[in-house]
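User: quick one, fold this
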Amino acid sequence: MAINTNRNFSTKHKTRACLYKAVLLYLIVTQSVSAFAQTHYVAVDGNDAPDRGSQQNPWATISYAIDNVADGATILVGAGTYNGQVRLDQKFTSGIVIRSMPLYQARLRHSNGSSVICFTCQGVTLEGFDIAHSANNNRGLVIQIQTSEARNVVLRNNIIHDSTNNDLLKINNGTRDILVQGNLFYNQAGSDEHIDINSVENVTVIDNVFFNSTSQEVTSSFVLVKDSNGNSDGIVGSKDIKIRRNIFFNWQGNSGQSFVRIGEDNTPTFEAENVLIENNLMLGNSSRMMRSAFTVGGSKDIRFQFNTVVGNLPSRSFTRLVRGGLPNENISLNNNIWSDPTGTLGTEGFIGADVFEALSGANASVTLDNNVYYNGGDAIPADIGQEVNIEDDNNAKIGNPQLPSQTGIVVPVYDGNSFAGGFSTIRQVFVHLANRYGKPAAGSIA
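Assistant:
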């Protein structure tokens, strides 16, 4: 057998082989990227069939779309009302995004239970939707995220409103790693909440706006964190919860409830642990009585810091620390503003009676530090019947934080095209409320 001594021949074939491998690798990569970044479409006049999903031939439902897209995809949902339950139960590693396009024009409604459910979903972002119950729905919850298989879920920039029964959003039964960001919540129903966070881990509620637009005397707190089922889901006490940079106002509910409540069911274990309530704006602009702006019961390692609570509310106290199944442990209340510019702290009839409501035996350990207190220029009442008092704050600042008057607050309900007050996005509503009602004047003691 003759040996080919032509080096150019060998080099030429090696070059071709390398080039072939490079082209093959490029095709594999570009096909993978194409699949990863693929965009699909849903429309009210679409059709759920395997050969659909394009802009020209969209699918009809989000539930069908989520069952038929690859990891990393985006699903754009066109304007219109989508009747029927949206089921998000698929798992994605990199994650998919489901977005209303145009913003808020895709309306999700259901007449027989939750409008959106996520029981085994992972890696799903739902953003830009108008989500509510249908008027004739007599079953509970507008959105429910539950079970230990549900995780890495994002609800962003949605209008979540008008439940006909129970919570607007329930996150419960072992769920982990949930982000609720930049949404607008209003009008829950019954003795329930805007958000019920129940026996879960690592939930962040940030940059949202909470209010009610109608009188609802029996409704409960806007945000509740607790654990009502013990160890049945593998989690004892909701843990690692962050409630940050939200705006709460226009209370219309039960006189025994709060904007934010931690613990409720008097269980034999701590209902919540390691909860941060930070940099929220709580506006007491309503004439309806609430118990307090903030309540803690039967919980531990709770930090309430850098919050602004302002207004007559009216309420029995700014902060309520009560015993649940266990006394509260390691509660810190630092760097907050508590301001009643109407000067009703200490008056009779439980109208702003105290800064703190904390009866003996309710708390194992509470720290106060560097808070601002204001009672319209009058003295801050010191109730010796409470075990937490302003005298416990060695760095207390007493004086006018010079926060704006709460006159002229517009309740920003959505009419299908814009928010009352002339706003076109939730973010515009948020920024307006924060700057108009939560920003101290120059030279403020705060």
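User: anything notable?
Assistant: The mean pLDDT is 91.
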